[in-house]
Amino acid sequence: MPGKFSVYTEELRSASQRLSSHAPDATQIPSDLKTEARQADQANRGFMTGEAGESLADEVAKAMEHYKEHIEFEVDAIKDCAEDWDDADKATESAIDAIAAELSSFRVPRIAGGA
User: Fold this and answer.
1) Domain extents for the chain?
2) What percent of the chain has pLDDT over 90?
3) Which CATH number fits domain 9-104: 1.20.140, 1.10.287, 3.30.70, 1.10.8?
4) How far apart are CA 49 and CA 43, in angstroms?
5) What angle do CA 30, 31, 32 make, to 5 degrees?
6) How far apart are CA 92 and CA 31, in angstroms?
7) What value, to the nearest 5°, has the Cα angle with vertex 21 and ends 78 and 54?
8) What 3-state DSSP class applies to 110?
9) Rounded to two decimals, what is the model's pTM?
10) What are phi and psi of 46, to 5 degrees?
């Protein structure tokens, strides 16, 4: 017999909201890093460290943009799962209600001469 499990769709929606709050943070990281790299480059003219810092900042910006897109994709997927579970629950409830309605009018046949 398969195990029983429950899905709490409101918790899924809550998790997707919490996750979506991280997306803007992901894009803020490279902005701060770029500013600091630019300042380091200006303070150390002629040295490769400033350029390397700016190059690193650019790579981090690309990575964080990809990360933000990933977060947004996962947020949508989690929301879709919650909706799908709610739809499945409603469909099942409707099917069970229909069976219950049919059973409520069912009468046990009586056998003539029986007890």
Assistant:
1) 9-104
2) 38
3) 1.10.287
4) 10
5) 90
6) 49
7) 115
8) coil
9) 0.66
10) 90, -10
- Residue 24 corresponds to which amino acid? P
In this structure, what token pair is assigned to residue 84? 């799908």
pLDDT 10s digits, 78-108: 999 999 999 999 999 999 999 999 988 888 8
Which residues fall within 8 angstroms of residue 48, CB to CB, at 6 or more apart?
A: none
Report the SS3 class of residue 115: coil
Predicted confidence band of residue 115 (pLDDT cuts 50, 70, 90)? low
In this structure, is the dihedral angle defined by the CA atoms of residues 48, 51, 57 and 61, taken in order, positive or negative? Answer: negative
Tell me the C-alpha distance between 115 and 111, whole Å.
8
Q: Give the separation between CA 50 and CA 112, rounded to whole angstroms.
A: 100
Name the token pair of 4: 């029983």
Q: Please spell the DSSP secondary structure of 2-28, one letter per residue.
A: PPP----HHHHHHHHHHHHTTHHHHHH
